[in-house]
Amino acid sequence: MGLTGLVGAGRTEVMESICGITKPDAGKVYLEGQEVTIHKPIDAMKQGIILLPENRQTQGLILSWGLGRNVTLPTMGKYAKNGFNDEKKEREISKELLEEVDTKAVTIFDPASSLSGGNQQKVVVAKALGQEMKVVIMDEPTKGVDVGAKAEIYSIMGDLAKKGYGIILISSEMPEILGMSDRIIVMCGGKVTGELSREEATQEKILELAMEK
Question: What pTM, to 2 d.p., does this model score?
């Protein structure tokens, strides 16, 4: 599903409230037909709802850390063994996840700061794959990356969808929304102003809804 609208429409704010980052004014969250209660981000993670933030450098990664440690950070407890971190297992898992998204790096010890924007985004995706996720919310996932990296990120999104993960794409790029979404929700002024299927969606219809008060 794609979520779009003009700047200030409230797209990110809605997704942050779903993930427990901010408190919603009203509304309920349903997952697989059941209402779920989310008060803070850890609740969303336990439900399998993962948000990949727009600002990957300040919110998605610790740039001074190695790629492997960035990937396993949310699931560090999985690698605890007799009170100590099983670093061998952690390295193996992080390497597999980084290879799954085809991250261009020399080793898992390379700092995240050494990568291009596109490859940093892949590391953020790899980190999500390491968690037991059902829904991944991708906020402007191709912002600041080159054309080649965009194509690779689109391919990763397609693979995730084929594996049965639900994907919510937040984007202000019209070709991206039209090309990657089977359903498009348009917002304006903090409210949903329309929903379009892939077949009926056009740039003109989306813009019309995006400016509707």
Answer: 0.84
